[in-house]
Amino acid sequence: MTEATSPDVAAGKPILIHDPSLRDGHHAVRHSLGAEQLRAYALAADAAGIPVVEVGHGNGLGASSLQVGRARLSDDEMLSITREALTTSKLGVFMLPGWGSIADLDNAISRGVDLVRIGTHCTESSLAERHLGYLRERDVEAHAVLLMSHMASAEQLAEHCARLAGFGATGVGIMDSAGHYLPADVTERVTAMCAAVDVPVMFHGHNNLGMAVANSIAAADAGASILDACARGFGAGAGNTQLEVLVPVLERVGYRTGIDLYRLLDAADVAERELMPAPPTVDSLSIVSGLAGVFSGFKTRVLDISAREGVDPRDVFFELGRRQAVAGQEDLIVDVALALRGSATGTADRRASRV
Amino acid sequence: MTEATSPDVAAGKPILIHDPSLRDGHHAVRHSLGAEQLRAYALAADAAGIPVVEVGHGNGLGASSLQVGRARLSDDEMLSITREALTTSKLGVFMLPGWGSIADLDNAISRGVDLVRIGTHCTESSLAERHLGYLRERDVEAHAVLLMSHMASAEQLAEHCARLAGFGATGVGIMDSAGHYLPADVTERVTAMCAAVDVPVMFHGHNNLGMAVANSIAAADAGASILDACARGFGAGAGNTQLEVLVPVLERVGYRTGIDLYRLLDAADVAERELMPAPPTVDSLSIVSGLAGVFSGFKTRVLDISAREGVDPRDVFFELGRRQAVAGQEDLIVDVALALRGSATGTADRRASRV
Predict the structure, then answer these.
(1) CATH architecture entry for B7-274
(2) Which member of A27, A31, A150, A160 is catalytic?
(3) Mean pLDDT to the nearest integer, A221-234
């Protein structure tokens, strides 16, 4: 960010890189990152000049719980450690209304957070109104993101983004939470969103179909100016857009990020060594959940229930996709598995319809 | 393949998938695959309906040697085992003139090979003339591929492809050996190649910049009708195009492969379990070699020599790229490392020019 206005990087259109490795990556390690891990990566990311470093429980402020998993560190600890490590990078946090509250926002502000992102399901932007309003009152930079965005049309997303900007968001965007998009899908949606708002538009990809980098470039080409990416793609399942791949590819096609390539690669090496057992790869069930358009966080329960009921977990994912299951509707997995078990048709028939 | 003419798959343009997992993947495991491994994957690929299964030493027929590594099994053993496992998939082999000879072709034909691919450096198509002529005489299907193709212009590649077709190749194409391409690069080159020949055009991607699937789709959109891909991307460094991702993405955008999705995912699971210690991931040096346009097979020697001479291996890769190093020129690594060590300028200057 500090270099974003220097002459040699102003030649291309600037893209602001937002790095949620220490938040979204938490989903891959059951929210278990410790103080030394946060510090090591935050220092490396700061040294590389990454504009925003987001930290927290995978589900954001206030989400540490038995239901979605307890984080090793408290929100306060995570914010303090990361705040101390960052010199030029902004400190970001994520919050899902319902998990987090106004009290959590207050607390994050008192810990020195620079940028708060409020997330909602793609068709429920109104849930963010109160929180965005509060952040505006407190004069804290606030962005808003729509999750599972492939479930809404370009027109719907544009409308919700316009509403979020009206609520005070100074940046709006979409997450491809299920890793379902191909570049043309992103182009259509981001184009519509950019036409609907005057604030920066962001895109957050997942790599279930091997398209996270290509989708992110498509978003930039369609007008997005904030892109999310994680070191080594650190994230659940097939992982997020790989940060240290995205940045040089952006630079090569003419965008400017202000990030130092060698220090960025160093940060990614730190992430691989310190944060994760192994970098994410695209396994077969990640591909299926991406094709089906289902959040890959369902994977463990789909596998367990499918084994118990003797059905093919791939059939379960595709059926969940048809029923438009979203996070919080994990009870649907049992319904679907029972329905498939009871179905008289063989799997061969079902298979043909997937391809 | 067997389903390629059935009514429901004829709706979209057919794409022939060529699977070199058991040949190019060999680079990732020092040519060490054994009989049971070849058999397990070939059976699974055949069951999925993959049109061509290519087998052999990573560098093709006749290449097993001290210089590039000895294969665990002989060419004869690999061909016999795979031939026996395949019922509908064609048996393919690869050959680089110089490593392999007419005698190797004879032998492969006697072992029942269906399709031979002759590879040359992108500007040396004439090296394939004699071998393509011989295969035409013997009435064996023969394709020709240009390696390190990013080093040649679209016009040059088109010209070489036309020559190869003139030599008798019934399929011609390019490999992105260094994983350097972005989709627009592929579109430009494949479009020119398709305009220059009447035979099917192929594309073979590597994933150094996270673009292997997107590049392959760009190739299809530009007119390519043969695409290479490996199970889990099995291959050296960042790996090849991931087969079980590419196929459903192709189907989703309207192409038809005739491959059964579930059996394909099963085959990829077999590959992950039986063939490789772990699926390929995109590490920092793979990114650098892709950006620099250098074959990632240089990695181990670049690391060794850089450590010995006290220089940054990333600088070495970028300088090798500027010098247009190709396989066989490994001696350049020492020259480059010594030149960098002797250079008075700090690495900071060199870094800035990379980004």
Answers:
(1) Alpha-Beta Barrel (3.20)
(2) A27
(3) 98
Residue written as tokens 């087998």? B55
- Helices A261-274, B284-292: inter-axial angle, 10-degree rounding: 150
Cβ distance of B265 and A248 shorter than 8 Å: no
The shortest CB-CB distance from B242 to any of A210, A213, A280 is to A210
pLDDT at A296: 81
CB distance from A281 to chain B under 8 Å?
yes
The residue extents of the domains of chain A are 7-274, 284-354
Reported as a pLDDT band with limits 50, 70 and 90, residue B12 is confident
Q: Is B65 annotated as a binding residue?
A: no
Question: Rounded to whole angstroms, how far apart are CA atoms A58 and A68?
Answer: 9
For residue A208, give the chain B residue with the closest CA: B245
A329 has pLDDT over 90: no
What fold, for A284-354?
A: Helicase, Ruva Protein; domain 3 (1.10.8)
Q: Is B160 annotated as a binding residue?
A: no
Q: Number of A:B CB contacts under 8 A?
A: 121
A41-50: pLDDT as tens digits: 999 999 999 9
Residue B5 has pLDDT above 50, yes or no: no
Instruction: Write the residue in B242, B253, B261 that is nearest to A355 by C-beta.
Output: B261
Local structure of A185: helix, strand or coil: helix
pLDDT of residue A142: 98
CB atoms A265 and B314 under 8 Å: yes
- So what's the pLDDT on residue B54? 98
Task: Share the mean pLDDT of chain B.
Answer: 93
Q: How far is A325 from chain B (nearest CA, A)?
A: 21
Residue B265 near residue A284, CB atoms below 8 Å: yes
Percent of chain A with pLDDT over 90: 88
Pick the closest to residue A316 from A331, A328, A334, A329 (CA basis): A334
Q: How far apart are CA A24 and CA A242, in angstroms?
A: 12
Q: Is A26 a catalytic residue?
A: no
